[in-house]
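Narrative of accomplishments. A recurring question from our advisory board has been how the design workflow behaves on a single, concrete structure rather than in aggregate. To address it, we present the structure tokens for one chain from the evaluation set, followed by the sequence designed for it. No filtering or post-editing was applied between the two.
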């Protein structure tokens, strides 16, 4: 399906409680979620038929919706069951899964308290987020001109669609210059995250990662921190100034799509994928395997 448009594929999508042909899963152009950003989503991966951390993702989807002022018309159990029925109908064992919820087109305007809430789940085959060969030697990041906003100005704990506009702008600008992605600072000038992944640094065997006080505390981020602590590694969650990057030896990204991806360069700063990064990449892969066995 490489290069095939996402609005014209084979298969089905779970939408508002039933499975519909992929090309029929449509919304109206005056949907509130399109015009005003009242839309939340998740990005998940299925490995050998098991969606990794599905409960955590579904719980966050529900919490994100509530942060935006609406409740989903389905329970967590119904959403989780729909995931597995979808994978079965699509005949996928390894796939990317995208649940999404949004306000519909009943009313148009900033206020939309009475709009119907829609929920859909789609799945497709998707390889590594970054080029495999590039990933192993460490990817290159640009430094974005856009910054993660003050949490008093956005619902920063929600995985809300509108919050990704500056991420798209940042990634497009980085790719135009030959980079794989971009690092974003926050509104205070601290290191924040990449456009769709959290970031970690290693210095003298200890891990440093930005405090997620104005951006999403990723589920993969939380998983990797747990794995690091099980290894006895010290993890510092703190504010990191950009100039500190000159003193770090290793760097890596974490995310459902990125998994654990080594970083070799951020603007003028250089890193060498090393023992800590390799160990956590291996431990994350092992955690995925354990989840499959447990299921």
């Amino acid at each position: 399906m490489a290069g095939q448009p996402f609005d014209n594929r084979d298969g089905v999508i779970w939408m508002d409680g039933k499975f519909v042909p992929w090309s029929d899963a449509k919304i109206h152009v005056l949907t509130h979620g399109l015009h005003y950003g009242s839309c939340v989503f998740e990005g998940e991966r299925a490995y050998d038929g098991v969606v990794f951390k599905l409960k955590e993702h579904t719980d966050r989807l529900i919490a994100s919706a509530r942060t935006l002022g609406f409740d989903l018309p389905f329970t967590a159990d119904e959403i989780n069951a729909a995931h597995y029925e979808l994978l079965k109908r699509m005949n996928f064992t390894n796939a990317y899964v995208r649940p999404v919820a949004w306000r519909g087109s009943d009313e148009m305007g900033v206020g939309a308290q009475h709009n119907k809430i829609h929920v859909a789940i789609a799945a497709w085959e998707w390889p590594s987020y970054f080029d495999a060969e590039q990933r192993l030697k460490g990817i290159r990041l640009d430094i974005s001109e856009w910054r993660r906003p003050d949490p008093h100005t956005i619902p920063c704990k929600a995985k809300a669609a509108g919050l990704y506009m500056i991420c798209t702008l940042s990634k497009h600008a980085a790719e135009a210059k030959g980079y794989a992605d971009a690092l974003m600072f926050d509104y205070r000038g601290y290191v924040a995250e990449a456009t769709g992944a959290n970031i970690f640094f290693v210095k003298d065997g200890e891990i440093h990662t930005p405090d997620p006080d104005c951006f999403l505390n990723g589920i993969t981020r939380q998983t990797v921190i747990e794995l690091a602590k099980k290894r006895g590694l010290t993890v510092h969650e703190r504010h990191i100034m950009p100039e500190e990057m000159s003193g770090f030896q290793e760097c890596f990204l974490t995310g459902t799509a990125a998994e654990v991806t080594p970083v070799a360069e951020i603007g003028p700063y250089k890193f060498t994928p090393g023992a800590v990064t390799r160990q956590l990449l291996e431990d994350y892969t092992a955690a995925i395997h354990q989840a499959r066995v447990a299921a």
